[in-house]
Specification:
With 361 residues, this protein is an alpha+beta fold. Helix content is 17%, strand content 28%. The protein is built from 6 helices and 19 strands.
Length: 361
Amino acid sequence: MRTSDFDYELPPELIAQQPASIRDRCRLLAMDRVSGALEDRIFADIVEYVQPGDLFVVNETRVLPARLLGRKRGTGGAAEVLLLNEVFGREPKSDSSALWEALVKPGKRLKPGSDAVVDFTDADGEVLLSAEVVDWAEGDVRGARIVRLTTPLAALDDALHRVGRTPLPPYIRDYQGDDELYQTVYSKRESSAAAPTAGLHFTPELIEAVKAAGARWETVELEVGLDTFRIVDEEDPLQHRMHTELYTVPPATAEAVAEAKAAGGRVIAVGTTSVRSLESAWDAAADAVQPRERAATSLYLLPGSEFHAVDALITNFHVPRSTLMMLVSAFSTRENIMAAYQHAIRERYRFFSFGDAMFIH
């Protein structure tokens, strides 16, 4: 197995730059995970595949307004801070300050120990938020810093929402539309640097239709990190190191998985982050998914991996040479997935975060 086994040529014009005008009217490629048989549908047709007793599990995380564009204090040079996750326990937290792990630009001028501070202002030039680079981060993201965010406002959250922007994947350029279209309709707590994009296709009406067809609907939360956009640099995929993300599986979801399994229903994961949450929470000794509360996972699923909790998967089309290509190949076969992707390219499906969907069942 080589990383190049999960590569493919994608015409650039098939990378979706805008979301579907109506969420559930995007296209859906349904694939039998064993035979590889394909059906071309639209996403709203997912309800036709529902069987009574099925369980849909979605990642309800919401994307942070984590992209901050400002000016370096003292020089006025343009600077950018991309927040990754909050750091707890290093110093007392207040309503007006907090420590965050972040990526910064320009990296050479924003190093710990250089008194580097970036200010973020409103349209009138008033500083609403500042970020001081205080240390190197010890996590998995190369080049990350620890920054101390401070604000003169009553609440840091208010300042973030006034100056922050929703971070979009690097392959989406110059999108000027509604940032809410990069959030799922069921998103709740802001905790991610990227959206669980398989869920973007659901509307409230479609969710109700799925339930009316006899399926149950439960949630997990995985705090999506930037690794979701990375390709695997190593030619041997076994040498790749997955970074750590935090996930939660509520007791109600763990119970629902057990009940669905006992009744012969399918557990349908909406998105690869839901897959990783459920499979990370699988306890071999108990032969069941166990509740988890902000547990850490670096689960890496690739051909040869076993799936214990998930029976079907709704997902988007993924970046070549990515860990997500390996995950979907593990869920079916590499040959089936590569054939499906070639079909999607011939039929002019739209790829990646704002693109069309697959249902692997």
